[in-house]
Amino acid sequence: MRIIFIYNAESSGTLRIARHFFMELKMAKLASLVAIGVFGIAVTALADDQEDTTSERQFTYAWPYLEDDAMKPRGGTTRGPALTLDTTPGEQWLALQAPELSTQERDRRAILAMAGGYRASFDFIETVGFVPDYVPKRPYQSWGTEYVYVVEDRADFISLQHILVMTFLNDNDELVGPMVVKHWRQDWQYEDTELHVYTGHNTWERVELTADQAAGTWSQSVFQVDDSPRYQAIGRWQHDANYSSWLSDETWRPLPRREFSVRDDYHALVGTNRHTITPTGWVHEEDNLKVVLDDNGELAGETPYLAREAGFNRYERVLDHDFTAGDDYWELTQPFWSDVRAAWTALFAEQGSLTLMDSYNDQSLFMTMFMFAGNISDENPYDADAGRSFIDQTLSDFLAN
Length: 401
Description:
- This protein is about 20% helix and about 40% strand.
- Mean pLDDT is about 85; it is low at about 1-55.
- The chain is built from eight helices and 20 strands.
- β3 (about 35) and β4 (about 40-45) form a beta hairpin.
- The strands form five sheets. It has a ten-stranded antiparallel barrel with strand order 7-8-9-10-13-14-15-17-18-19. A three-stranded antiparallel sheet has the order 11-12-20, with no helix packed on it. The chain has a two-stranded antiparallel sheet with strand order 1-2.
- α6 packs across α8 and α7 (about 365-375) runs antiparallel to α8 (about 385-400).
- It is an alpha+beta fold.
- The termini are far apart.
């Protein structure tokens, strides 16, 4: 049985079940399964053999002198079945270590090494405050099981789609699920000379690079769960023996869902991203400044910097998790999402600047797209003409310019 949950992250995790559901689950329990995610949606589960010891945990930057449990991490507390991690070097890692590869090919193999099935964990904590009377916010922890699919693989372009495939243990220790949620996407372009960068207030603008500026670099474009833009940056891969890592230039990003659903005291993240490949997976590190902007998207006033945040997202390859439901979902809906990607590509080609509205008719863009995708099934296959008409109208509705 396949179960797909679609929910409105802006309204504290309200769920809509778009396929089958288990009658024994109460809606209150369902709501507790969902945590606001790092790049879009992250659903959290504790393994069956793990205790909930969050009250005893400390981060490296733990603010140890604050009283009580003020810095107890927030995030999900639902339970899932135990997982078996793959502790042997994967084939993609071994392919990356091959001798006498061109620089571009070794870069490509590093990017492709991020594909596969993982336990993904997300950790974020504010480490420094820059305003008087600063009080750090509670850190964030969550994790989920996620498969990264290769959507496209060309010599100078690779597209990777993340899809969460989760199962849970209910109060009776019975398995519930699987739950499938389309997560974020990352596109990698070699020697990219045209970027669409975030400039604040839900606006993205085209930036042209010279061939010299782009030489030897890869751009990484990160997209929301509905394939709308999130951020784009260029950087270089560094390879040295068993070390392969990509570091971005400074990048502006909108607030992630884990933040904008609970905070309104800053407007953008400004920082860098590092992707590093390991023998059994990969890690994504973030170094972010939380900044306040004026109405023009400029740093506001004399104290625009609120805090610095450290983020560490770890992707560990798993052996025994069943990702079949994600395969089925992607096979059914991929033609629709392909048309969504094509529509966004056309918009970026036509317009030098795009501004998105937060909602249209009291509904978010991702909920609108997810509801359409949720109606696609074996009995109701995707109609390309109807889908493209829906996509064009929906994007027109949500574009502010």
